[in-house]
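Figure 6 in text form: structure in, sequence out.
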């Protein structure tokens, strides 16, 4: 009994592929739109997804999507991320055997060169070793565990790290399934500059700077 929750903002170019990768296995799909001005909502409605419209902000959108979802398990997925074909078996095994932990996927980018592989490898190391998966790796979690730790908070940034910290490394596990994510931000900002900015923002967050102040640096 799986609800897929996807936050969107002007995602018409990527959303179809994301929806296609999950629609056959999802009992419901909740697309939480933050005010798109393109055809994002139409794309979602075409495949029978339920569209919820809320103010822009990924933390706000994720929290609203979880509140709207009705199934026992939740899969949070970004609108530019596509799960590889064998994800249902891995997810089903996790659901059957490990309701005490949340799961995330192994990150790769839709770009195949050394810098892309290096950035993805660092992200997977951070997620596996430090217990800090980012939202572009997806999150599969039972409703019971999600509610127990307080779910996503309506933060403008670091909502994924915030939830991962409350879960703790012991309650997170990586599924050996690929989540292929758009590299647009890295192509735009640079394969070294973008990770350094992300790391700087993460450090500011751990230092206690409010996310509302970090978001301008991140963007």
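Output sequence:
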């Amino acid at each position: 009994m799986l609800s897929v929750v996807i936050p969107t903002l002007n995602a018409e170019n990527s959303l179809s592929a994301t929806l296609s990768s999950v629609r056959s296995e999802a009992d419901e799909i909740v697309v939480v739109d933050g005010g798109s001005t393109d055809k994002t909502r139409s794309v979602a409605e075409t495949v029978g997804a339920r569209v919820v419209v809320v103010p822009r902000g990924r933390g706000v959108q994720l929290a609203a999507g979880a509140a709207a979802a009705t199934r026992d398990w939740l899969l949070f997925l970004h609108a530019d991320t596509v799960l590889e074909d064998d994800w249902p078996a891995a997810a089903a095994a996790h659901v059957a055997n490990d309701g005490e932990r949340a799961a995330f996927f192994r990150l790769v980018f839709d770009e195949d060169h050394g810098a892309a592989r290096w950035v993805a490898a660092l992200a997977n190391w951070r997620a596996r070793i430090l217990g800090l998966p980012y939202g572009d790796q997806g999150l599969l979690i039972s409703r019971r565990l999600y509610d127990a730790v307080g779910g996503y908070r309506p933060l403008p940034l670091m909502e994924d790290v915030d939830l991962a910290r409350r879960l703790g490394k012991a309650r997170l596990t990586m599924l050996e399934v690929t989540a292929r994510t758009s590299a647009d931000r890295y192509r735009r900002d640079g394969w070294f500059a973008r990770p350094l900015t992300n790391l700087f923002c993460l450090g500011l967050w751990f230092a206690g700077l409010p996310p509302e102040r970090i978001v301008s640096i991140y963007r």
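Caption detail: The beta strands are 2-8, 28-33, 50-53, 73-76, 81-83, 102-109, 139-142, 172-181.
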